[in-house]
Amino acid sequence: GAGVSQSPSNKVTEKGKDVELRCDPISGHTALYWYRQSLGQGLEFLIYFQGNSAPDKSGLPSDRFSAERTGGSVSTLTIQRTQQEDSAVYLCASSKSGGAQGNEQFFGPGTRLTVL
Amino acid sequence: RKEVEQDPGPFNVPEGATVAFNCTYSNSASQSFFWYRQDCRKEPKLLMSVYSSGNEDGRFTAQLNRASQYISLLIRDSKLSDSATYLCVVPSPGGYNKLIFGAGTRLAVHP
Questions:
Q1: Could you tell me which chain B residue has the CA closest to the CA of A109?
Q2: Average pLDDT by consecutive 10-residue portion of chain A (116 residues)?
Q3: In this complex, is the C-beta atom of B53 within 8 Å of any C-beta atom belonging to chain A?
Q4: Chain A closest CA to B14's CA: distance in Å?
Q5: Is B32 close to A95, i.e. CB distance below 8 A?
Q6: CB atoms inside a 10 Å sphere around CB B79
Q7: Are A6 and A23 in contact (CB under 8 A)?
Q8: Which residue, A8, A13, A103, B22, could crosslink B97 as a Cys pair with Cβ 3.0–4.6 Å?
């Protein structure tokens, strides 16, 4: 079946502009995660959704970052007034959830964001 | 202690070698563990899940030592195509099925 998809694959923007990144999880997966990965760095957790609610937003780096998920499926991550340090690959993952043996995460190809 | 710590890389090994990566974790209540593989400029992909003492899949063996809070990944008969970064992944003590990713260990297999 189809995997996790993300769009756009690449985004170049100017400092101060807003950007919106989209994630379409695997059908039937209730859990959805956003991470970011800077060049040569590990994955940095941003936010977790279970259905439409976000019980864990602890990783969002500032109030310029927000995310929503509607209909328990597609999610959008919005970054307002982008800064150069926001440049990174933003990865989305989904999992079946429901217990320890159901939470393998499957990743999308990511959106490479470059802020000039 | 970090939630997940991995061997620093890179590991440079010849084809055919056996190589082992280590990972320690701080949450003693963790029940499931994962090894992910990440190729350069690609997304992480699940390599192995570990729910009991270990798991074996072809040339790859993962072992779990709960008493020492230690997970290892053994790769036998290394191939050039095994060159990648290997991520150790552990559930967060915060629950919600949140996973904590280690920083990764880089493997380079050369001819």
A1: B43
A2: 91 98 94 89 87 82 93 93 97 76 81 97
A3: no
A4: 24
A5: no
A6: 11
A7: yes
A8: A103
